[in-house]
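Predict the assembly for these two chains.
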Amino acid sequence: MLGGNEKEKARALAKVRRFLKARLLRDYTTLHGYKEERSNVRQLLQRTAEMGESNSLLLIGPRGAGKTTLINAVLTDLVDNRSFVENTLIVHLDGNLHTDDRVALKSITLQMRLENAADGKVFGSFAENLAFLLQCLKAGGRQSKSVVFILEEFDLFCAHHNQTLLYNLFDVSQSAQAPICVLGVTCRLDVIELLEKRVKSRFSHRQVFLFPSSGRLEDYLARVEELLSLPENKSLEAASDRLRRLSRIQSEALSLGRNHFDPADGEEIDPPFRKNWNTQLHKMLATQHAQRSLQMLYDFDISEAFLRNFLFRLVAQLRPETPHITADQLRTMANQYECDDKIELLCGLSVLELCLIIAIKHHSEINDRDPFNFEIIFARLSKFAKVSSTMQGMERSIVLKAFEHLRIGELIMPVSVSSSSSGKVQKEFEKHKLALTYGQIQQAVQRYQALPTEVAQWAQSSLI
Amino acid sequence: MTEICAAMEALFPCREATIETLGDLIGDCEDVYPSAIYLFGHSGTGKTSITREFLRECGRRQKVRTAHLNAIECYTTKIMLENLLDSLASGQGPIKADNMLDFVEQLRRWHDDPEGLSEGFLIAVDNAERLRDMDANVLPVLLRLQQLTKLNLCVILMSQLPFEKFYNKTGLSDVIILHLAQYNKGETQRILASDFSQMRGNLIKKYAKEHDRLEIFKEVMTEDFYNNYMNIFLSVFYKACRDLPELQLTARKCFSIYLEPVLDGSVEATDISRLWRHIAGPLRSALTQIYMRIEKPLDEAEGSTNLEDQSVRKMAQSLELPYYAKYLLIAAFLASHNAANQDKRLFVKHHGKQRKRMQTVNARAKTTEKMSTFVGPKSFSIDRLLAIFYAILEEKVGLTCNLLSQISTLVHLKLLSFVSGEQNIMDGSARLECTVGLEFVLQIGKVVGFNVRQYLCDFM
């Protein structure tokens, strides 16, 4: 009986785990905050769909601020609107995938489902091709369909030859040939400067800036609790209803609905368990340890993407032995984000390699961060090796290997990047510079396990 | 998931935490995968082998398609994409992908595939630091592949660098970073000693023909004995090298030397201090060859007082250059390491009086870092080389083609190298430099009875 009970619990926990994991990573359409910006973009799209207005807009904000989520959320809102679904086509382009205009145009044709119409036609220019595509849309119904172009990584499109795609899109949107709306998404603040003059003058200069609201810590904590708690069944149904409507957007590239987190998926979690989970969670988050750790995270990065990633790792640790997230887990995980990767790597070096780093540090301190080569460092190390008992009898070839190991780990970097010039110079004489701060070296020396005392002393003072 | 972890933990001692974390994150293909995981740590900490085994286990037990590739092999993006598709598709014939878009679209197609029974996709990329040198869109797309393809897909990147080295101008999307810490001394010893039974088996096979040795061996070879050996071994090697595979290789190679006196019956197996005296020399000489993997008997260099000196001396003596070529090499070294304006004072008998100015005195006050033997060789023209050659050579020799051909011999032997103007040697614009070190030239000088130091500005 007891065994059965345990099994039951483990099953329920696995369900919770799956649910939370999916909600943390796959919820592409739920946006928090940004009310003003959201209604701004929605109105724009609505006007394009219903009145046939043309428009262009840039959505600018740092990574993880929720730019894409904002667009997704707006589209989800608009799906309810029958006329929007019938009247608009969505074309989704990504600067990382559509690396030149030819590829982009092909993809546009496909996404507008015009490959049959365009097949076999020869176009003189890019503009002609695009005009043809838009014309096709007009021909169909009494009213022409409007097209929403979503350009992710907008700054990368600026690097295309002559910015042809951007020029044509903005040109169409400005001259009211066909109702299109161009939504650019980028994380570069100076993106306007990247546009050529003729392109810039055709852009509407409508920009929406998204900055993660540097709200209060309380909001942040509430967000954490919301992301981790289990909702009521009723709200789940509402959410999954919303999701089902998403499939009305028929776009291969965007395909929001597919693989989206679906709360109705899987069995339901029974209410007592849910209640227990939520109270435990609330208790845990109220503790001082948890608050302090979350405060630290908040100081690092306020973006929600970062938070979700962090919580995902916490949720992944759930298992039958530890069925709840504890404040300790939270703290250890938060501490992982605090530590410096380079110091970790330094602590994994051998004593010889660490001695080289120390020699380099002394050289840099004395010569004001002048570049160095192997010979200089080796001479300094040999001086130390003469008086030290641990480093005696280190052969040149081993030290050279250790030096190369540092270079592979990019703890030291060659000054000249071009491979052609470095090929000529012998490796013993190639100039390098240090890619560490003195503080990092200091900390690594302190933390290194079982470091010989004389090496530690040498690290403090270059005098031997 | 638990079975996978249990199976893996037996294979990789001291890596339980990492395996558990990996299992938590991507152990269950019905769960949602994170979009990217970055594994980093020094070489030899088990990044690749753990990931490979993990993917294999996942592929075997769950409906997961896996791909594992090394970024070094992919010198173009296309090769990488097609390799990935091939191993993910597992035998559906070659699939073409010219660019990133084709690749992503192919993956999207698999989502609709009715036969596509697999629920998860795992992609592992070794030497991920190479991705930085590939097309600019490779790394961002790989990190966001899950979002782009809408598959349950996870990309595992492995590298020796911290993730901060990957950041580009506009930043990257978030990844989960896992660090594999270097094994500490206790762990290293534990792992090295764990191949005891395998080692024993191998050696029993080796001594199978010599009956009396086999008897002694069977008696002596205990875990304690092996542990003691590892202890001694690490006391010599650990400070210079913490790379586990490298240590393992060398430890196996040296073990038979350690065993030899015991099998001979000259030393008791329990007499550790005498065994240490026997093995110390070979171990120290093995230390000089670590990473090199030179297959030569270790005891050759045994008993020498100064290994460094000897190896250079040996090389200089074994190099049987003609008499004039030796002088040419010395002349080249002098030309490389002295400034041209000092030549007159160094090599001409009546060079007149030196005027001492404050400026020159200051310039002479050299620190070690400015010495030309530390900074590296400078280039010189063939004319200057010949002039110095004639100045340091006592006798008169004619400028024959025999003499000139020796320059090209030296270039062939990589003792000299061309810096520029390789094509126009005849018009005198070619510039050479000397690639050998001071130690080596001093030895050559000793052979022909010439004091090189006397002619170096650094040592005046």
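Chain B has 21 helices and eight strands. Chain B touches chain A through 71 residues (CB under 8 Å).
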